[in-house]
Amino acid sequence: MSYLINEIFYTIKGEGYWSGRPAVFCRLSRCNLWTGREEDRASAVCNFCDTDFNYAERLDVDEVVDRVFSAWPTHAVKPMVVFTGGEPLLQLDAPLINKLKDLGFYTAVETNGTIVAPNELDWVCVSPKILTRLKQTWAHELKLVYPQLSPNPRDLEYYPASVKWLSPMDGPKLAENTQAVIDYVMKDPRWRMNVQTHKMVGVK
Fold first, then answer.
1. Is the peptide bond before 95 cis (omega within 30 degrees of 0)?
2. 32 CA to centre of own chain
3. 110 belongs to the catalytic site
4. Selected catalytic residue, list 15, 26, 31, 105
């Protein structure tokens, strides 16, 4: 089995439940909601993505594991790997997850929820995108970019997740969207406000 890998890097988790926690990010190429090409953005299902996931290097499972393992600085602390994309569940599978778990890694994924996550994962973060059907029917955390026409927070009030976040949509209306998130969370404290602290402090 081989995987199309965009990049593997060590950083500080910048948002969500694990914010502030050092982790190795394994970014897999390809997405089912956008090609990643600017010329296709207007017609994409998700047209506000700010991640460049197009570059791809084909690696086999042992090569991915070796690079993730090598990126972690000390095994005196339980290591964590976050699979992201693009949409990582187009490629992520049990053999890769289990090999990293055998090395002691806590395994997490950030997914748009349109593909069912492998049971082997320790942590699932679902970030729904506009007009998509959620096939992942639960999550440890739900992270919704706001505002979107659909889904909106009311659509996801009863989605099973331990923590539910609203993230201000980035772009030219960031300040306006941030205030909209503040207003919504203050009215409905079932939601929490999520901000991208890695952008604020200048880490990847």
1. no
2. 14
3. yes
4. 31
**pLDDT tier, 76 (very low <50, low <70, confident <90, very high otherwise):** confident
Catalytic residue among 53, 84, 87, 110: 110
Q: State yes or no: is 31 an active-site residue.
A: yes
Catalytic position from the list 9, 40, 51, 75 = 51
φ, ψ for residue 179, nearest 5 deg:
-65, -35
Report the pLDDT value the prediction gives residue 34, as an integer from 0 to 100.
Answer: 59
Q: How far is residue 5's CA from residue 91's CA, in Å, rounded to a whole number?
A: 10
Active site residue 140: no
Q: Are 23 and 122 in contact (CB under 8 A)?
A: no
7 included as an active-site residue: no
pTM of the model: 0.89
Q: Is 25 noted as a catalytic residue in this protein?
A: yes
Range of the domain at 184: 2-201
Q: Which two tokens stand for residue 195?
A: 């901000």
User: Is residue 9 within a helix (H) or strand (E), and if so which, with residue range?
Assistant: strand 2-12
Smallest Cα–Cα separation from 48: which of 115, 137, 145?
145
Crossing angle, helix 61-71 and helix 94-102, to 10 degrees?
Answer: 40
Instruction: Enumerate the β-bridge partners of residue 146.
Output: 168
What's the total number of domains in the chain? 1
Specify the CATH number for the domain of residue 27: 3.20.20.70
Residue with tokens 């901000």: 195
